[in-house]
Amino acid sequence: ASTQLYEKDPSLWLFHLSALLDYDTNREKEVEQLFEKAIVKLMKEPELLAKCWKTLLNKKPSDALFLRALRDAAVGVEVKDQYLMWKFAKEGLDGARTLYSSAATEPPFSLAFHLSMKSIEEIGETGNSEETQKRIRKIFEIATLHFGDKSTG
């Protein structure tokens, strides 16, 4: 494969991974092995490593994969809000709130994570505006704690 010949070319890793995920759903083991190799080869390219993770998470999302991605600070910042949105789509408002409560004050810190939760609260609002406003205020308090008041507005 081209990734063996040009193993330092990150775009080939992404292309190969995307192709396997898009066109061949019966090759889970091969996808897993390729992904593990890509992680090793792209370790010194955090932006490209994050793209590789996002590619996999967009095609095969799971709690286990998201939690693994969050262990790498550079990648975690990029995918933390994606995890929240996926959790909301999968488990609804309660699932998103549970994840937010457990992850909001844990690194890696991501402003997008807090802003996504604010949007989820607004979407999930069901009549009790005062309660929703309290939750949104709490989200901004936590975001301000980590990013200051200039970034959260």
How is this structure best described in words?
With 153 residues, the protein is mainly α. The protein has 2 domains: 60 residues; 75 residues, no CATH class. It is built from 8 helices and no strands. The longest helix is centred in the middle third of the chain and has 31 residues. It starts with a helix and ends in a 6-residue tail after the last helix. The model has no long low-confidence stretch (mean pLDDT 86).
Mean pLDDT: 86
Question: What pattern of helices and strands is seen along the backbone?
Answer: HHHHHHHH
Residue share in helix: over 70%
- By DSSP (H or I, 4+ residues per run), the number of helices equals 8
Distance between the termini: 48 Å
Return the domain count: 2
Domain U3 small nucleolar RNA-associated protein 6 homolog C-terminal: 1-148
Protein name: U3 small nucleolar RNA-associated protein 6 homolog C-terminal domain-containing protein
List keywords for this structure.
153 residues, mainly alpha, 2 domains, 0% strand, elongated
Brief rundown of the structure:
With 153 residues, this protein is mainly α. 77% of the residues lie in helices and 0% in strands.
